[in-house]
Design goal:
Blueprint: H1 5-10, H2 21-54, H3 69-77, E1 81-90, E2 101-104, E3 109-112, E4 118-124, E5 128-132, E6 139-142, E7 150-157, H4 175-183, H5 189-198, H6 201-210, H7 215-231, H8 244-256, H9 262-267
Parallel strand pairs: 1-7
Antiparallel strand pairs: 1-4, 2-3, 2-5, 5-6
Length: 268
């Protein structure tokens, strides 16, 4: 048997109707459950309304503007391509510097100068190039957007000289200790005696007189004789004993008696 509680509550004469005791107990329990349920629902609704009024709404963070690579690429593609060529020279002697790096940060690429300091690279108008080399200061060059398709430039590099302070290295902590060590140095007696004996003037003279001709001296002597022979090849012999003209003059002087004259003897 099922008891419809809502139907009993809706009936106006339900309070005056007498029911058995078990049914009255059931009705009392049902009313209490219904009232407690209604109170719980009202409490939940009130708590939700109060929390919604007291708790402030969180402020939304500012939207971050991020530039995507696909958005940047069309912007760079819209720029004009410029062929940049030029010469990188040193500011002191105006000579081309080889091996200089020309790097374009926006494009992520670059080039280097050849043996004569020449370079050529294609880039976009409005980019900037970094020019760097070992021993020189870093330079920056801005590619102008003036409508030209090719640009020729001359970049001067300044030497980056770094002067280091002088460093003196001694085997001893102080100069005084070094001087004392040098003054107190004792040379071996045997080696000192050998040095004096080898530098003796008499021994040096004997070595000089007894020394034979070196290969350089032999070469010079032979070449001087060869040159003399080539010079006198078509001339009379330089040795008078084999000169017929000298013998002719000598015989004539003997016949004339020139050897007995006092003038000839004085000249001789």
């Amino acid at each position: 048997m099922t008891l419809n509680v809502s139907r009993l509550a809706a009936c106006p004469n339900a309070a005056n109707t007498s029911y058995p005791k078990p049914y009255q107990q059931l009705m009392t329990i049902a009313q209490r459950l219904l009232s407690s349920t209604l109170i719980c629902l009202l409490g939940l609704l009130l708590s939700f309304d109060l929390s919604a009024q007291v708790q402030p709404k969180p402020s939304s963070p500012p939207a971050k503007t991020t530039t995507k690579p696909e958005d940047v690429q069309p912007q760079r593609l819209n720029k004009r391509i410029v062929q940049v060529s030029g010469l990188v020279v040193s500011g002191d002697d105006q000579v081309g510097v080889p091996g200089v790096n020309i790097f374009i940060p926006k494009a992520g690429r670059g080039t280097s100068t050849n043996l004569y300091g020449y370079f050529s690279i294609a880039t976009l108008a409005g980019d900037s190039a970094v020019v760097s080399a070992t021993g020189f200061r870093k330079q920056y060059y801005f590619i102008p957007d003036d409508g030209r398709q090719a640009i020729s430039v001359i970049i001067y590099l300044k030497a980056d000289t770094l002067l280091l302070p002088e460093i003196e290295i001694f085997p001893y902590p102080t100069e005084e200790l070094f001087k004392q060590a040098v003054l107190s140095l004792k040379l071996p007696e045997a080696e000192l005696a050998n040095m004096h004996r080898n530098l003796d003037p008499g021994m040096l003279n004997s070595i000089r007189y007894n020394a034979r001709m070196s290969s350089n001296e032999n070469y010079r002597s032979y070449m001087s004789q060869e040159i003399l022979r080539q010079e006198t090849r078509y001339n009379a012999p330089s040795l008078q004993l084999l000169n017929p003209f000298a013998w002719n003059r000598f015989i004539k002087s003997v016949r004339r008696g020139d050897l007995k004259k006092k003038e000839y003897q004085k000249t001789e």
